[in-house]
Automatic annotation (TrEMBL):
SUPFAM superfamilies: Purine and uridine phosphorylases. Keywords: Glycosidase, Hydrolase, Menaquinone biosynthesis. NCBIfam families: fut_nucase, PRK08236.1. One of its GO terms (biological process) is menaquinone biosynthetic process. Pathway: Quinol/quinone metabolism; menaquinone biosynthesis. Pfam families: PNP_UDP_1 (PF01048). It catalyses: futalosine + H2O = dehypoxanthine futalosine + hypoxanthine. This is Futalosine hydrolase. Catalyzes the hydrolysis of futalosine (FL) to dehypoxanthine futalosine (DHFL) and hypoxanthine, a step in the biosynthesis of menaquinone (MK, vitamin K2). It is an enzyme of class 3 (hydrolase). GO terms for cellular component: cytosol. The keyword Ion transport does not apply. HAMAP family: MqnB.
Length: 235
């Protein structure tokens, strides 16, 4: 990490290099709106496309082509919130990132076996606890907050109450659902870079009702979150 001397106070501030991976351009632009020009060299923000495969491919490419190593990768965007855990417009910071539909469907309840249970590996990557603490401190110093909880990744967004219940039961405490986190996390883990996920909630996880999505509110929350993070880490 580059160190910047603040001579008048005699302090040394570390300036981390962070890669932010969003799915679509509207999310990338919302993140960029929160960043001052001065941190452009330290924070790269990309839109990777929707879904874990596109996210993993783009994150891997960005990590490998970087002129200098990244200290942290953040999967960021709007997301679904599990009722009672994350309201529309609120933020969820992942404690772990879980691919919730990676496994096998079964005819018996609960209707799904994860790859972990099947013995094919792991569907979970733990978010970096030290970075999560820094990001939470950044949000709180700007009067914001985030639920620190497992974040689900799925290839098909939940659209029924039954799927919402099954996915919530699969990962106790899960607060958010998105479609890219695990792909970004798998890329970061493969390359030994710390990772976390930050979701701004646009809709409830449950029966599909696109008219109830509050994308504008969620994008504003994303901008505010990254403004707070940049101010805390770089200014
Ligand atoms: O239509 C728009 O203006 C618009 C602006 C920004 C983003 C979108 C998206 O549709 C992004 C898709 C993206 O959102 C995540 N997401 C949001 N809600 C959920 C959900 O309930 N379950 C799973 N994923 C969700 C997801 O990561 C998609 O990539 C549109």
């Amino acid at each position: 990490m580059l160190q910047q001397h603040t001579e008048e106070r005699g302090t040394v501030k570390t300036l981390p290099r962070i890669l932010v991976v969003t799915a679509v351009d509207a999310e990338r632009d919302a993140v960029l709106r929160g960043l001052p020009d001065t941190c452009a060299e330290r924070m790269e923000v990309i839109s990777a496309g929707v879904g874990p495969a596109a996210a993993a491919a783009a994150a891997t490419a960005a990590l490998l082509r970087a002129a200098a190593p990244y200290d942290l990768v953040i999967s960021a965007g709007i997301g679904g919130g599990f009722p009672e855990r994350a309201a529309i417009g609120s933020l969820v910071l992942a404690s772990s990132i879980v691919q919730a539909d990676l496994g096998a469907e079964t005819p018996d309840a609960p209707g799904f076996i994860s790859v972990d249970e099947l013995g094919f590996g792991s569907s979970r990557v733990d978010a970096d606890t030290a970075w999560n603490a820094r990001l939470l401190a950044a949000l709180r110093s700007a009067g914001l907050d985030a639920a620190l909880a497992p974040a689900l990744t799925v290839s098909s967004a939940t659209g029924t109450a039954a799927t919402a219940e099954r996915r919530a039961g699969l990962v106790p405490g899960a607060a958010s659902e998105g479609m890219e986190g695990y792909g970004v996390a798998a890329a970061a883990a493969q390359l030994g870079v710390a990772v976390t996920e930050l979701r701004a909630i646009s809709n409830a996880v449950g029966p599909r009702d696109r008219s109830a999505w509050r994308i504008g509110d969620a994008l504003q929350a994303l901008t505010a979150a990254f403004r707070a993070i940049a101010a805390h880490l770089y200014l």
